[in-house]
């Protein structure tokens, strides 16, 4: 069983069955008007060096391994990490720079976090990232792809399950769109489920197909 816990914005905590804690794109909370993440990570993955994604000191154990804008493949304990280069804008990084898309495989479950992806993806990214059980995709626009482009990316990557992120929630001081914009464009063959907490437990044998999980902000 793998635990996925959303700490708001683009910050996710993943806990493996062995207890290894991975945190992706930590923020400090206060700078965004959100609660600070309350977690101690063994592994921290940072997709890019913007203040709302790189507050590793807030979450990292003294012994933690921190990977920043990592591109390549690496195994750490029971965790496999693959970083794939992409961009924060539609101009190959000329405006906002580069980002790393992270694929994390734990307990035979493949999770992909798209960070502040700023452009739609073509089929080469589907090849780079391979099969995806859970996709964490930005949908709020302004600094990332918007709700329309998010569905285009989902169509290319073909994940089994989607968790939207990086959208406006109560208290957030960034001008992002709400998740309802994303849900309004949901294809007929997808469904969505609202989770009454900020966490979701998944097992490799019981992963839903074509389901969007809306986690409750912490």
Automatic annotation (TrEMBL):
GO MF, one annotated term: hydrolase activity
SUPFAM superfamilies listed in its UniProt record: Metallo-hydrolase/oxidoreductase
Key word Hydrolase present: yes
Domain of life where this protein originates: Archaea
UniProt keyword annotations, A-Z: Hydrolase
Protein's organism: Ignisphaera aggregans
InterPro entries, A to Z: RibonucZ/Hydroxyglut_hydro
Keyword Cell inner membrane found: no
Source organism phylogeny: Archaea, Thermoproteota, Thermoprotei, Desulfurococcales, Desulfurococcaceae
Protein name (record): Zn-dependent hydrolase
């Amino acid at each position: 069983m793998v635990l996925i816990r959303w700490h708001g914005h683009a910050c996710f905590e993943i806990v493996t069955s062995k207890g290894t804690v991975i945190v992706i794109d930590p923020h400090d909370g206060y700078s965004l008007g959100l609660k600070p993440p309350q977690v101690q990570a063994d592994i921290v993955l940072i997709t890019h060096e913007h203040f709302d994604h790189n507050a590793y000191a807030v979450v990292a154990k003294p012994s933690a391994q921190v990977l920043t804008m990592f591109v390549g493949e690496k195994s750490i304990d029971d965790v496999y990490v693959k970083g794939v280069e992409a961009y924060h804008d539609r101009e190959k990084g000329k405006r906002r720079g580069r980002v790393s898309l992270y694929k994390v495989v734990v307990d035979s479950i493949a999770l992909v976090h798209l960070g502040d992806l700023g452009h739609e993806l073509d089929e080469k990214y589907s090849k780079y990232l391979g099969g995806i059980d859970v996709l964490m995709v930005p949908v709020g626009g302004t600094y990332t792809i918007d709700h329309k482009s998010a569905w285009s990316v989902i169509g290319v990557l073909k994940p089994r399950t989607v968790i939207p992120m990086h959208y406006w929630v109560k208290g957030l001081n960034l001008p992002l769109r709400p998740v309802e914009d994303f849900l309004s464009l949901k294809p007929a063959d997808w469904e969505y489920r609202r989770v009454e907490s900020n966490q979701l437990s998944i097992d490799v044998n019981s992963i839903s197909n074509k389901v969007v999980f809306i986690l409750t902000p912490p």
